[in-house]
Amino acid sequence: MKRHQLYVIAAIVALGLVLGVAIWLTSGHDAAPEAAATENHDHVPFDAARIRTAGITLATAGPAPLSVSMTLPGEIHANADRTAHVVPRVPGRVERVLADLGQRVRKGQLLAVVSSDELAERRSTLFAAQRRLDLARETVVREEKLWRERISPEQDVLQARAAHAEAQIAARNAQARLAVLGAGQTGRLDTYELRAPIDGTVLQKHIAVGEAVGNDTAIFTMSDLATVWAEVAASPADLNRLAVGTKATIRAPALGLSAEGAVVQVGAALGEQTRQATARIALSNTGGAWRPGLLVDAVVPAPPVAAAVAVRSDAIHTVEGRSVLFLPAQGGFTIRPVRTGRTDGKLTEVVAGLPAGTPYAAANSWLLKAELGKEGDEHGH
């Protein structure tokens, strides 16, 4: 019985030794590649021949001026200084509409015709006053003739002259009341014609045949779109860079448009909700491509700033959430994490992680990131 127990214990010990050796061998074989992978994780193998074929070139980090610009979102609006609202000066009912949205019109062009009882009354009053004036003038001429012939007394002449003066005043008042309406002479007493006050494009239209219109609502809005405004909202910190006369580049990414303009107005007060001020940038629009409502970006340049260490912007890549550069090393390149600062799109400031005078991969350095990605996939498998 004791001998049998000894055999069992020996078998268990032997089995433990075999398992221990197997585990040690397995862990030893896995650890070496893992250590190698960890050791070479920031290294990208790339021999000289591949570097030449890929067209990867080196540049040297160093001091450089940065043309830092400010980009503000905005929207195209009609030039308010060249915009007009057409409002009927008398209430009435629309009889004809001759202008449509988007139509280009000339100054004085007929837009709509309105029938107005108030206008008919004023015209009737004027015609009556003019008729009384004509009669009063004829009476003066007749009474003066009779007075010279000693047929009528001078008192009749004086009364005729007074009546003539009163008729003149009444006619002038009636004429002035009609002139205020801007109503010209037409075939009908009640016809009121709405005409374009400027050359421009019809942007809004709130009128239809048969509709009753008042004298307090704009039924047409038109603007000369030869120039438009790009309106941008700027914070108080940015207002100093948006003085009147400042040049700016307006871009419409959706249409691939770009044009130069200048700041013509800067709001004197901040919005209660946004705490921003509106700046308006005048833009030539002879081709009509800059339509009101188009979303744009306004790029405002700034004086160049000096960067102690700057590199090409296209040489900076993101690897595992870090901004990195690829530095030449034995047999390829190594990854150097850096902290970046200001940029003008072409050059980027490096504020930490790279001393001036350090060479780095510049042109076509994206191929190194792609190679690093392939290596990561291989290690993952």
UniProtKB/TrEMBL annotation:
Residues 309-369 form the CzcB-like C-terminal circularly permuted SH3-like domain. Keywords: Membrane, Transmembrane, Transmembrane helix, Transport. One of its GO terms (cellular component) is outer membrane-bounded periplasmic space. GO terms for molecular function: transition metal ion binding; transmembrane transporter activity. The chain crosses the membrane at residues 7-25. Residues 82-224 form the CzcB-like barrel-sandwich hybrid domain. One of its GO terms (biological process) is plasma membrane copper ion transport. SUPFAM superfamilies: HlyD-like secretion proteins. The keyword Lipid metabolism does not apply. Residues 227-298 form the CusB-like beta-barrel domain. Residues 122-179 form the CzcB-like alpha-helical hairpin domain. InterPro entries: Beta-barrel_RND_2, BSH_CzcB-like, CzcB_C, HH_CzcB-like, MFP_Cation_Efflux, RND_pump_MFP. Belongs to the membrane fusion protein (MFP) (TC 8.A.1) family. This is Cobalt-zinc-cadmium efflux system membrane fusion protein. It comes from Pseudoduganella lurida.
